[in-house]
From TrEMBL:
This protein's name: TrmB family transcriptional regulator
Residue segments, region Disordered: 276-297
Transcription regulator TrmB N-terminal domain segment(s): 8-66
Pfam family membership, one: TrmB
């Protein structure tokens, strides 16, 4: 019952209204105000006001008795949910046209810090759900489990989706490429984290990292950062396609022997350390380029 009450509150009912409605639904027969108060825990001093609000919303009906007493019946749950859905959809449709009209152009493109896994994944879901033209993702299986349903919906509504997935994907969606060169384990060791990058419509991007139970990241609509995020994913996908074409062993030899590539790979674990330093309130010492993270070889 507590969960139902909480969900009804999220859809606009007050706590007392939700408790009274659930009580009426569970009774199976008309109830008067006294019975509703007794069964629901709504104070007797406010129960008739609460029932009146339910009646005004169409969520309950009054039954007038011959002795002028009043009983109450609930609108059936299926009908209530359909009505709420229609009202919600109507409000969203109205706001889609009216709300953007009052938005002032930003004076600067801000960067929002995200300092825990819940906030990071919730913001990633927002970016994916808002995509209309194209979507770029670089993601690991751990995060893909939560994001996959929204990615699938994006593909279904015609969003051009390009996805770099670190390791085998249980349910491939869109244009998905498995990161096999280098191996996911080598990438994780080099970065020091599982990097998540999401970019939608060349308009907004989220970049974050996960290490164990810790997560940190940023969200921005800055065009320069968005472009860099998109190009990062595009280039990573291109590298996988080239490796498949020329052969992974040939690529591995070239990757290991070319001194220019060795120089670019310097800074083991440095990217994650920089993000961690930027994402936490304290300012931990960032290891210099080339220094290993503790516990790695």
């Amino acid at each position: 019952m507590r969960d139902v009450v909480e969900q009804l509150q999220r859809l606009g009912m007050s706590g007392y209204e939700a408790k009274a409605y659930v009580t009426l639904v569970g009774a199976g027969q008309p109830l008067n105000g006294y019975e509703v108060a007794k069964r629901s825990g709504v104070p007797r001093s406010t129960v008739y006001e609460t029932l009146g609000k339910l009646v005004a919303k169409g969520a309950a009906y009054e039954l007038r008795e011959a002795d002028d007493a009043t009983d109450y019946l609930p609108l059936p749950p299926r009908s209530l949910l359909e009505r709420m859905r229609r009202e919600f959809d109507d409000s969203i449709e109205a706001l889609e046209s009216s709300l953007p009209a009052i938005v002032a152009p930003p004076e600067a493109h801000l960067i929002h810090s995200l300092k825990d896994a819940g906030a990071l994944l919730a913001r990633a879901e927002d970016v994916i759900a808002g995509a209309r033209a194209d979507l770029f993702l670089s993601v690991w299986p751990e995060e893909m489990k939560r994001l996959s349903p929204l990615v699938k919906r994006a593909v279904e509504r015609g969003v051009e989706t390009s996805l770099m997935h670190f390791g085998p994907a249980e349910n491939p969606v869109g244009h998905l490429y498995e990161h096999r060169f280098s191996s996911p384990e080598e990438v994780s060791e080099g970065l020091g984290c599982r990097l998540l990058v999401v970019a939608a419509d060349r308009r907004e991007t989220l970049v974050g990292g996960f290490t164990g139970d810790t997560a940190w990241g940023v969200y921005t609509e800055d065009p320069a950062v968005v472009t860099m995020a998109v190009e990062y994913i595009r280039n990573d996908i291109a590298l996988q396609i080239i490796a498949d074409r020329v052969g992974h062993e040939t690529m591995r030899e070239f990757w290991a022997d070319d001194p220019r590539l060795k120089r670019l790979r310097a800074g083991h674990g440095h990217p994650a350390a920089l993000m961690r330093a930027a994402g936490l309130p304290a300012h931990p010492r960032v290891p210099p380029p080339g220094a290993d993270r503790p516990g790695t070889r």
